[in-house]
Amino acid sequence: MKNKSSRYLASPYIIWIVGFIVIPLLTIVYYGFTDRSGAFTLSNLAEILVWENYRPLYRSLILSAASTLICFLLAYPLAMILRWYKIGRGSIIVFIFILPMWMNSLLRILAWQTLLERKGVINGILTAMHLPEQHLINTTAAVLIGMVYDFLPFMILPLYNALMKIDDNTINAAYDLGASFWQVLTKIMLPLTVPGIVSGVTMVFVPALTTFAISNMLGGGKIYLIGNVIEQEFMQDSDWNQGSGLSLVLMMFVIVSMLIVNHFDDKKDMGRGGVI
Amino acid sequence: MEKLKDTLSQCYLAFIVLFMYAPIVTLVALSFNNGRSRAQWSGFTFDWYAEMWADQAIMAALRNTIIIAFVSAFIATVLGTIAAIGINNMRSVSRNTVMSITNIPMLNADIVTGISMMLCFIAFGVSLGFHTILIAHITFNLPYVILSVMPKVRQASKDTYEAALDLGATPVQAFFKVVLPELMPGVTSGFMLAFTMSLDDFIITHFTRGAGIDTISTLVYSQVRKGIKPTMYALSTVIFLTVFVVLMIGNFAPEWLKKRRK
Lengths: 276, 262
Description:
CATH class of the domain at 57-233 in chain B: Mainly Alpha
Order of helices and strands of chain A: HHHHHHHHHHHHH
Shape of chain A: globular
Oligomer: heterodimer
Order of helices and strands of chain B: HHHHHHHHHHH
Radius of gyration of chain B: 23 Å
Distance between the termini of chain A: 26 Å
Mean pLDDT of chain B: 90
Low-confidence stretches of chain A: 268-276
Largest sheet of chain A: none
Structural class of chain A: mainly alpha
């Protein structure tokens, strides 16, 4: 369909995105670069260098990188096994691994809170077995488990899709030519699944970097992430300028990390193509 | 060797399934636990389900979640489908600009999207409430609809549309009888995607909702601070079962029907 006048069909949409995407982003940029009186300043951005803000950002970067790596290390073997058993897209087994993705994510974090709490399920089991109670909730490990649990399905699906696309003959040819399993993995499978890895990494890293719910529910306010700092600026302290400044810094980190990740994907499809 | 590989693989699959489902099974089990303790089993009960059903906050949150998901997905689908046709007919420069803006909510962090909208609403004097959540959900649903419909628009041939016009159809008739059926698979998957994204959203809703209105996600979040009531476990079980049944039907019913017909 090519028709000159029909391009105006997009007008309501363009008005919508200007009103609700472009203008809000400009608003946050405006607040980020001004102080309370409306004068231009860079101090809101520089606020990230303050220890109380820099420390959570650093913690967020470490935790999101760690959870992305753990998700990858858990999901890749899983996807390889599914491929090895030739378990197709429509099978119930794949369905089982994808299903938690559709369950409300806050309820899934709530489940971990129930397990890890001081009087929670795990400690209950330990006590019943006459073992000492463990301090599990409100630790960095609890937040990390929450991130891995929450985002794992988003790593599994793109990796599985990418691995299933590899032609059997490619892999058999490598084995016939004398390649070891390790060589097949590093020279054939990993390079051919780069688009899947890229979309999996993006879908885990960005939400993990910016979360505040997981750290609040499983970290009990003790494991403070950059998301928590920003959320508090808006919901409790009402310092919009500083909050906007920190949001802009966080946005830059998101953009830079996505540019780095997408750099590995020469096909340049924006990563999320393989999601559904 | 082959057998060892088999056993190891199956153990690994079992381990991941355990990791993914043990927490959910715990929630389900606790929803039937007679007693508030999370560590002790004190008998079977349906009380929490009855209490959940009578709890107005939970029921209102459930209603809000479903209404917002349905209405926002519907509006985003209509607006997005029409837009996809329009965007496809644009010159490449303006098309690329519009598509880049379309991608922003998908690529940007939800927290920034949520905050930017909240700031904008407040700055322009719009009070936060049901309508602002709805606007926000439509906005983040739109890219999913457009990216689902766009490939179908590109595939659709312009000949059939023009043939319909030549045969005397009005443009509106031609759209509904010729164009739309061709786009339908993309439109449906766009709607489903938008609907589920909206159901699951927490962050953007958290920032754009006003006081006194909750969705399931924001209700769970606020409950956590006050201490979780077992009614939340009952709610989780109901939601999990619903998702399970709906997805089972969506995924497997078409195949079963096919097999039966044979």
